[in-house]
Amino acid sequence: MHGHTEIGVLAAFLLYLRRFFEPMQELSQFYNALQSATAALEKLAGVLDEKPAVPEPSTAVALPAGGGALSFSSVAFHYRSDQPILPALDLDIPAGQTVALVGATGAGKSTIAKLVARFYDPVEGTVTLDGTDLRDVADADLRRAVVMVTQENHLFSGSVADNIRFGRPTATDEEVADAARAIGAHAFIDALPHGYDTDVHRRGGRLSAGQRQLVAFARAFLADPTVLILDEATSSLDVPSERLVQHALRTILRQRTALVIAHRLSTVEIADRVLVLEAGRIVEDGPPTTLIAGGGRYADLHRQWRDSLV
Ligand SMILES: Nc1ncnc2c1ncn2[C@@H]1O[C@H](COP(=O)(O)OP(=O)(O)OP(=O)(O)O)[C@@H](O)[C@H]1O
What is its subcellular localisation (predicted)? Predict the structure, then answer.
């Protein structure tokens, strides 16, 4: 993460310069150079944000194609030794399963997700993907196999197409549009002032929260990872956007393993399995309907969510 703050400051400064020169389009060459420099730095800052601080394996093991089975075996984890976060987690997720992680703030949902994306290594125990310890997988292979979509979505300055193509830099315009179509984002993108060439501006300032989410989903769809991790946005969407996002979610969860840090009832309802976490331990584990019938913690949470919708 070294240098991240400095890069952020530099990006902000360039952005300021760019705004200043924006009205003077006759200086267009300089302005264009400034624009690309800002976009590149922002991208770098975004990537560094998510860049894991873990060592590359000395001899990398190739991941088998397809699959997506995840396994936590006696995983203990802490950020600081005086504050254990996961005491000893055992968890098997078969390939293709959609798992919703629920639980109070600080329960460890994001930590589990970050261990799967190998932002951190376990202090004890192992996390495996299709039987391979994540510590033995080359960084580039892991980035392709496991994609995390966060609340921030990390849209950078540049066109909508560039933002989607970030999922697979070699994708053609047609493949970018196909991904947007599959996700249900094509219609709104097409209606933007410059369609796919519309600049989303810094952090997607011009797009609504729902639209940003759809662009991030289209990017992940194009990347086509074996494992998708989704940290669902907490901010509520209006009803039409919510419908679009839920539809996109069903598409993107299909045919891959998914871990969803869920904040919406409608999302948990489409999961195959719910894990309820408390202080780093799984206290309930099962299909949503079974847990509701069981009358435990998820049943309480489900009731609260349902009541808040009425
Ligand atoms: N980078 C970090 N350094 C130190 N402690 C951290 C770090 N990230 C998280 N924690 C702590 O780890 C615990 C678990 O956090 P985590 O983010 O996994 O919980 P969560 O269930 O995802 O919560 P939320 O719903 O608020 O996102 C919390 O006590 C949190 O303060």
Answer: Cell membrane
Is the minimum distance from the CB of 280 to ligand 1 under 6 angstroms?
no
Mean pLDDT value across the chain: 85
Instruction: Read off φ and ψ for residue 292, nearest 5 degrees.
Output: -65, -45
Q: Nearest to residue 144, comparing CAs of 167, 160, 162? A: 167
Q: Of 126, 127, 145, 139, which is closest to residue 64 (Cα–Cα)? A: 145
Question: Could you tell me which of 265, 144, 240, 162 has the C-alpha nearest to residue 204?
Answer: 162
CATH of the domain at 89: 3.40.50.300
pLDDT value at residue 226: 96
Q: pTM score, two decimals? A: 0.82
Q: Which atom of ligand 1 is nearest to the CA of 231?
A: 27
Ligand 1 contact via 114 beta carbon (within 6 Å): no
The answer to whether residues 45 and 142 belong to one domain is no
DSSP 197: G
